[in-house]
Design goal:
The complex is a heterodimer. Chain A is of the alpha/beta class. Helices cover about 40% and strands about 5% of the residues of chain A. Chain A contains 7 helices and 4 strands, in the order H-H-H-E-H-E-H-E-H-E-H. In chain A, strands 1-2-3-4 form a 4-stranded parallel beta sheet. In chain A, helix 4 links the parallel strand 1 and strand 2. In chain A, helix 4 packs across helix 7. The longest helix of chain A has 18 residues. By secondary structure, chain B is α/β, with parallel strands linked by helices. Chain B has 3 helices and 8 strands. In chain B, strands 1, 2, 3, 4, 5 and 6 form a 6-stranded mixed beta sheet that branches. Chain B has a two-stranded parallel sheet with strand order 7-8. Chain B is globular. Classes of the chains: A alpha/beta, B alpha/beta. At the A-B interface, helix 2 of A face loops of B.
Chain lengths: ~200, ~150
Amino acid sequence: MEVNNPGEACIGPEHELDRLEGQGIEQLKAASQLATADPAQWLEKGIPRGILLTTLDAVLGWARKSSMWPVVCFPACCAFEFITAEASRWDMSRFGMEIVRASPRQADLMITAGTLTWKMAPQVKRIYEQMAEPKYVIAMGSCAISGGIFASSYSVVPGYNRLFPVDVYVPGCPPRPEALIHGVRMLQRKLSQATSITRNTTK
Amino acid sequence: MTTALSTSELAAKINEKLPGSITEAGREFLTVKPEALIDVLSYLKSTPGLEFDYLTSIHAVDQWDYFELVYLLVSIPHNHSLKIKTRCQGRDNLSVPSVVALYKSANFQEREIFDLMGIRFEGHPNLKRIFLWEGFQGYPLRKDYL
């Protein structure tokens, strides 16, 4: 293909882009008819472990839980509760959550604050896939848990666990900052019990 | 506060200029034939003393037998407002003339109505979906959806 105007050539015809986007959304919708299982299995201590592994786990668990960096994923109104929880009054950084990363490659926690529409779903899934392992997800609010009042709507994803496994669910519409901090503390407790060998990834 | 214009004298004025274009003159609105919509709106926009230069919004209402489009017009220099309604009968292959040439603010609104209610706007410069994705079946804001 000859490129006369490089700026235009890579964009392509508009309707072709729309068709491809629609195709991607339909495929994702067809692939996420069932909820992904919650990754709770990795809490069970499956393998016998000696002093060395246990100590290593304790150190790794402490390091991971003390520097949870969330990624920016705020599709709707729960974001404001998250911002409040981050700000000085509730001050989530007391628990090692001080930096919200704009790049998913530097983050290890996704707090899904808000309603997700199917049109936005491929982008959120891509953000999740770009995060480096180990990665964790907190579903914040009714919409993130099950779609909330929009669960039967034509355009809303009924729960983030259709797209990727969710570790902690924080109910509320929206949840109070205390509830979110409690959810984060629960995830940190979960992390400190984790083994360093593998994380059971279902998807 | 914007004052709503009295429609009775206005209807007589429009009937004089464009006979047969108005089918109903309510207390706060005028119902216009869809084929005369462009003429009526350009008359309202350009006539001195009226000068409706701003289209606030377009509503589409599903009334089962017909779809009703409501155009909310405001005049910035005279600080008065007016509702214009038009109807398209039936439920399939609906089409109404586009008013984007007159009011630029109609562009996205007409695309939204096209996307969610399934009414085509003839003469729209870029009539394609705005909210839903390509391949979505049906028109979700119609009353018979689901």
